[in-house]
Amino acid sequence: MSTRLACVVFDADRPRFIADFWAELLGWGVTIDRPEQVDVAAPDPDGADLALAFLPAVRAKHGKNRIHLDLASRSIDHQRLQVDRALSLGARRVDIGQGAVPWVVLADPEGNEFCVLEPREEYVDTGAVAAIVMDTRDPLRLAEFWSTAAGWPVAHGGEQVAGLRSATGLGSWLEFVRTPEAKSGRNLLRLNLASFDDQAAEVARLRAAGATQIAGVHPSTAPRLTLADPETNEFCLLRPVRDCSTV
């Protein structure tokens, strides 16, 4: 498999500010700090090599993001501490219609929703980020596409929820949750892939799986092709591997 999931991209009004929030909350470190991009990643070299990348962009947020992060907790007390810590760093509680649930829904200082989960057995070894969650009208179909794209096997699938995880058993889950709302506008959070192989061949493989190409080569020395998955969620195929920026 020559392509892997590289990073979750956040469009940000203040990339360094919001990157610092997430680094402090997760206990991660800043690995790239440039005017056009700030990355944070877990310090554990044995964990999954997945970063959060924050890019300057004019944000026009309407409704709930279609991608959000779920944070893990070890106990009810730890969940409470996680929530208190997030609030002290500038997060706020939000109501997205969740009702009475055991997890806590918050938004970061720029309004990006995330959840602090109650303890769950399936997330005991994920690290700070239990899951990257994507809203979808067809969880299994989108899980199958991203399994093909990133090389993560489908661990469970159904009409309401489907999930992938790296075959190594390390790091976060990638989960797809059924929602009736169709995508509208550009996603403020996106997934990016990194390619180790011939980019044209990888684009052909992704298109065969259901992707569409929506932009050309990024105007820089490193080609970054912008594509969309079968539900029009944007993502980039990056080269070189260490660069998580996007168009």
Explain briefly what this protein structure is.
Helices cover 20% and strands 35% of the residues.
Give your account of this protein's structure.
By secondary structure, the chain is an alpha+beta fold. The chain is 20% helix and 35% strand. It is built from 4 helices and 16 strands. An 8-stranded mixed beta sheet has the order 2-3-4-1-13-16-15-14, covered by helices on one side. An 8-stranded mixed beta sheet has the order 6-7-8-5-9-12-11-10, with helices on one face. The longest helix has 14 residues. About 3% of the residues have low confidence.
Index terms:
single chain; 247 residues; alpha+beta
How are the secondary structure elements laid out?
Layout: E1 3-12, H1 15-26, E2 29-34, E3 37-41, E4 51-56, E5 67-71, H2 76-89, E6 92-93, E7 104-107, E8 113-116, E9 129-136, H3 139-150, E10 154-156, E11 161-164, E12 173-178, E13 189-195, H4 199-209, E14 212-217, E15 224-228, E16 234-238
Parallel strand pairs: 1-4, 5-8, 9-12, 13-16
Antiparallel strand pairs: 1-13, 2-3, 3-4, 5-9, 6-7, 7-8, 10-11, 11-12, 14-15, 15-16
Major sheet size, sense and barrel closure: 8 strands, mixed
Assembly classification: single chain
Question: Based on helices, strands and strand pairing, what is the structural class?
Answer: alpha+beta
Low-confidence stretches: 216-223
Query: What is the H/E order?
Result: EHEEEEHEEEEHEEEEHEEE
- On the 0-100 scale, what is the average pLDDT? 89
Q: Please list the strands of the largest sheet in the order they lie side by side.
A: 2-3-4-1-13-16-15-14
Give the overall shape.
globular
Round the Cα radius of gyration to an integer and report it. 17 Å
Question: What share of the residues lie within helices?
Answer: 10-25%
What is the end-to-end distance? Answer: 25 Å
Number of helices: 4
Fraction in beta strands: 25-35%
Q: Got a strand count?
A: 16
